[in-house]
């Protein structure tokens, strides 16, 4: 009996660490493979807020949540992505960022695929939304 308790104790500790707390932020779960954003397929982007950008990449649409406020996002039509150093894809890994023309770097906290209905909500926003071309 004592051996069983000692064997289960590490498993319980690991499970407790893996479970997100109710009030804490959601864990960073990067996209994988073909689900990642390929900057060369991005057609347009919309600034939803200073911490959220939506990107239209053809068949796939993305919601990017930025780590902090990106103050210059609305001041220009072009932006670039900094993703994987080999493929250039943006999956939501540490180091992924939006890079603005003026050199400001806006780290990406989370990236997720969204459906067409969520993307279409972006078009109904007031003039504060900005859209433009993606550059590399």
TL;DR of this structure?
With about 140 residues, this protein is α+β, with helices and mostly antiparallel strands. The protein has helices at about 1-20, 115-125; strands at about 45-50, 50-55, 60-65, 80, 95-100, 105-115, 130.
List keywords for this structure.
seven-stranded antiparallel beta sheet, 136 residues, alpha+beta
Overall description:
The chain is α+β, with helices and mostly antiparallel strands and 136 residues long. Helices cover 18% and strands 29% of the residues. It has helices spanning 2-18, 116-123, and strands at 44-49, 52-57, 60-66, 79-82, 97-100, 105-114, 131-132. It is globular and about 30 Å long. The chain starts with a helix and ends with a strand.
């Amino acid at each position: 009996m004592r051996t069983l308790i000692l064997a289960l104790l590490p498993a319980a500790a690991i499970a407790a660490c893996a479970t997100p707390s109710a009030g804490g932020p959601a864990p960073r779960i990067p996209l994988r493979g073909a689900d990642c954003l390929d900057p060369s397929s991005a057609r347009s982007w919309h600034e939803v807020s200073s911490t959220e950008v939506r990107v239209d990449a053809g068949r796939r649409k993305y919601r990017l949540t930025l780590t902090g406020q990106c103050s210059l996002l609305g001041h220009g039509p072009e932006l670039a992505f900094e993703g994987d150093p080999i493929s250039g894809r943006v999956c939501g890994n540490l180091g992924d960022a939006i890079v603005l023309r003026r050199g400001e770097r806006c780290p990406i906290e989370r990236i997720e695929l969204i459906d067409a209905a969520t993307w279409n909500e972006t078009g109904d926003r007031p003039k504060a939304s900005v859209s433009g071309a993606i550059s590399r």
